[in-house]
Structures are given as C-alpha cells and as structure tokens.
Amino acid sequence: MNFLSRQRANKTFNLQLSTFNFQPFMHHRLFILFLVIASTTSCHFKNKQADLILHNATIYSVDDAFSTYEAMAIKDGKILALGTEREILNEYDAAQIIDCGKQFIYPGFIDGHCHFLGYGRTLQEVNLDSTQSFEEVIQRVVAFKPVNSRGWIIGRGWDQNDWADQSFPSRSKLDSLFPSTPIALQRIDGHAMLVNAEAMRRAGIDASTKVNGGDIDFDKGILIDNAMNLITDILPAYSREDDTAALLAAQERCFAAGLTTVDEAGLMKTDVDLIKQLQADGKLKMRIYAMLADDSLNYAHYLKSGIDTTDRLSVRAFKFYADGALGSRGACLLAPYDDVLPFSYGLMLHDALHFRRKAYDLRVAGFQMCTHAIGDSANRVMLDIYGEVVGDSIDHRWRIEHAQVVHKDDLSKFAQYHVIPSVQPTHATSDMPWAPQRLGRSRVMRAYTYRELKEQLGMVALGTDFPVEGISPINTYYAAVARKNLQGQPDGGFQAENALTREDALRGMTIWPAIANFEEHKKGSIEVGKFADLVVLDQDLLKCTEARLPQSKVVMTILQGEVIFK
Ligand SMILES: [Zn+2]
C-alpha cells in the first residue's frame, strides 16, 4: 500500500476512533474493517491504465448532489473515475497527466441558443459591435471595403441605443460614399437592416414596396424583419469554402471560450450536411445540437427520414420565429409599446395556424419544437399551441427560446405543459438601458424573469444568442448571477430578484441545456461514463467574489478527452 494513502486511511480511522471511543467494542470492529479495506486497495496500486489524468484541482461535477472531487481519470474520451488526489493517482496511470495547479474544472459549457454558422460568417464581415456613433459605423465600412471579397458589403452589430442620437440611422451618407457598391448592415439583434440605394435598386425595393410581417422605411433605408428577406434572398450565396472557413473560425473562438457544445438555432439541411462532412473529416470537432430552420426543404427531408443523432451532431429539433425583437419593436406584445406613437404592438411573423400545423407535424415525427418568442403575446400564443399539441405528455421537452416578456397569467404554463425556457442572461444586461422605456415601468418587471422561469420546471437552459451577444459563457454566468453589465452596473443588479444562484447558473450552462437537448445521459456533468468534455478556469465560480467573476479565464478546454484549447 502506498504511504500517503495509508496515512490518509489512518487519519480517517483515528477520527472514527475518537468518535466511538466510548465504546471499546466498536474499536475492534472498525479495526477489522480497516484491515479488509487496506488489503483490498493495496493490490490495486497503479494497476489501471487511463489515457489522461487531471489532478490537483477542484472539480465541480454538477451531478445531482453537486459533488466535488480533486482528480479524475479519462479513457477513450469518457470519464473513467473521480476521486481524491490519492484515490486517482494511486490507482491509475496515464500517458498524459496534467497537474491543474489548484485550478477549477467544470463540465464543458453548452451554449443553449446561438447561431454558430452565422457567427462564423460574421467573422468574415464588417463587425459593427460596440460602435459609439453612426460615424463610426461609416468609418468601419470604409476601412473594410478593400478587404471585402463578396461584392456586397455585409455588416452586423450596430445598435442605435448605444449612440448619442438614438433614432434609426439613415442611408444618405452611405449613398454618397458608395454609389455603386450594395451595402447591407444588420442591427445587432438581426431584426433590422440598414441598406443603401444600390442595395435597394438590386432588390427591386421602391417607395411603394410592402412586405407581410415586415416594414420598410424607404427614405432611411431601414428594413424590419421579413422585409430584410428582400435583401438576404439576393445576396451572393455562401460557397462551401466560405462556410467551411466560417465554421472552423467559429469553432476556434468557441473552444477558447470553454464551449464544448453549441445549440445552433436554425440551419438548412445543406448546412447540416456540410457540418456532418467536416465532422467526419475530423476538422470540425465541436458538438452541435442543430435546430432546423422552419423551411419546406428541411421538412421534405427530415419529416420523412426522422431524427438523426451521433456523438457530435444531434438533429431532432426545428426552430421557429414567432415574433421579432424588442430592440427594433418587432416583438409582439399584448398591449402597445410604451415609447412610440402611433400605437404599435409589434408583429407575429406567421399566423397561429402555421405554428399549430407544424406543431402537429413535429409531434407525429417525434421532433422537438423550439420557438423564438420575445413579446408576451408571442409567448402566450406559442405556450397555448404547445399546450394543445403536446401539453398532455411530460417528456416532449419542447422549448421556448428567449421567453423574454411573459405575462403573469402565462408563467405557470411552462410547468403545466412541461415547456423548457431557453434564455440568454446577457440580453437582460444589454437591454436594460432601454427596455424600461419600450415596455413601461410595470411591464418591464415581467421581462427577463429567469429565476421565475427556472422555478417552473426546476430548470432553465442558458445561452447567448451569439452573434447577437458575445460568445463568452463567463459573461452569461455573471449576468445571470449578478444581473450587471461588464462595467459592474447597476449597483445591486437589474431586477435582481430574478438573478439565479451560482449553482443554478452553472447548471444552466451545463446539465440543464444537456437535458433540453435530450443528452443528459452523456454530457452536462462530470460523472463516470459520460464524455470527458471539460473546461478548466482559473477561478472558483461558486466562491470567488462577484466582482472577480467576469475576469475568470479559460485555462484549458477538453472535448472527448482531447485537449482542444490551452
Ligand atoms: Zn437566436
């Protein structure tokens, strides 16, 4: 028997002795028990072979008991054993042994709602995130023109709420600088687009153009929701090479952020086919939970062929848009927006019949329905349809994406119909400067109610909606528990009664989205037999001060036992 483990066993034994020393008879029995344990463990010393050992760490397993460990052994991409430092080091040997230097290991993070391919594509477009003025938008577009390879200049990320002048921008400056280059610049939420005259000319848009489920301000060059399709439909198609580059660029950034699974909210079959090919070639290693877009080509294939899952790709869900977004006043509300005249309620992107029909189709084919619903009206319509179609079965795991404004009368429908809320905590902290004006002081209290939503089924899946927000799961965690932006504002947090506990926020980035993806038996926690998908951070997310949370750094990311970021 190894000396250290004998010391440890003796110490335990002594403690037990002192506990029971009023009862001499017990000494004897415990001593015999000790001898039996000692003799059985001694013959196992380092005789088990693993591929990788991680030790000298605090391992948050996020299992049911929220257990912690010091070390683990990994073999064939799965977790083989967990225990104390000595339990693992005495019993296992491995080709690769990593001393974690007292750092912290968590299950690999899962982003429960994002646009992985779309994010990769934005990495090859003009990035307009965090622009402080429309002049800065223009400057970035001008600087991008020489490196652009797609003919059109595509950009994304502006948010007029960040500017001194908070009205929608206008195309006049773009028209004079770029008379013959078409330009399309999406707002940060992806629900509004600024285009120049050349773009509108190519799309056949004039002052009289009307679009169902969309709006056009011809003079300004602003397109809302479905009106953007007039542009996106004629953009030069992304080639296979473009999208391969996009996916691999997105993967690299996401691994560096500690993500090991992404829930991709809306893909075409051709995108899924490319992902499959890149995964088969070993180039794309990221695990992807692919929601299919609400599109006839996807139905034609998948409703016949059925769900399709592998270890790295799961295709068993369809993603719908019930309404638009709050920032562009496209979210569909029960009562008018508070900050605009004439009265506007926002809009549903399809009539209820479309969603109801698709819901029945999906139920029959065994697919999960995931619906973007921001406004309280959109949430009510979708919850009622879910209730009608699957409300009587308890394990359909249908999801509402965002669940951003939920009327008090509708909240309990999440529990009643077993609907999983999938929310993005950084939306709360990004929207807090203007959401109270859009919704009014009392209705805003019904928005971003993550704790209330969590209480319905005892779980909530967390994500970012990147590239709408940044990709960092650390920022999600901080926004969820502190309800503050990265400047630490506001004091006390925004509507802090809806903050999640630290344990729950960690579950929301690991085991809960795994459940929302039907994958909790193989990922989402660090347990024997599950995939070794792990992230090592330099900070203790459960115990460090709140102010230190956003500074947490990803030290290493491991996917299926392979170190994929360091
Ligand atoms: Zn989204």
How would you portray this structure in words?
With 566 residues, the chain is an alpha/beta fold. It folds into 3 domains: 10-44; 151-232, Diaminopimelate Epimerase, Chain A, domain 1 (Roll); 240-565, Alpha-Beta Barrel (TIM Barrel). The protein has 21 helices and 25 strands. It starts with a helix and ends with a strand. 50% of the residues are buried. Zinc ion is lined by residues 113, 115, 265, 465.
Write the layout of secondary structure elements.
Blueprint: H1 3-20, H2 24-42, E1 48-55, E2 58-60, E3 68-69, E4 71-75, E5 78-83, H3 85-91, E6 92-99, E7 104-107, E8 109-114, H4 116-122, E9 126-127, H5 134-144, E10 153-158, H6 172-177, E11 183-187, E12 192-195, H7 197-203, E13 214-217, E14 222-225, H8 229-232, H9 240-256, E15 259-267, H10 269-280, E16 287-293, H11 296-305, E17 308-309, E18 313-321, H12 352-365, E19 368-373, H13 376-390, E20 399-402, H14 408-411, H15 413-416, E21 420-423, H16 425-431, H17 435-439, H18 450-457, E22 461-462, H19 473-482, H20 502-508, H21 511-516, E23 534-537, E24 554-559, E25 562-565
Helix pairs in contact: 1-2, 4-9, 9-10, 12-13, 16-19
Identify the notable features of this structure and list them briefly:
single chain, 566 residues, alpha/beta, nine-stranded mixed sheet, six-stranded mixed sheet, 22% strand, binds zinc ion
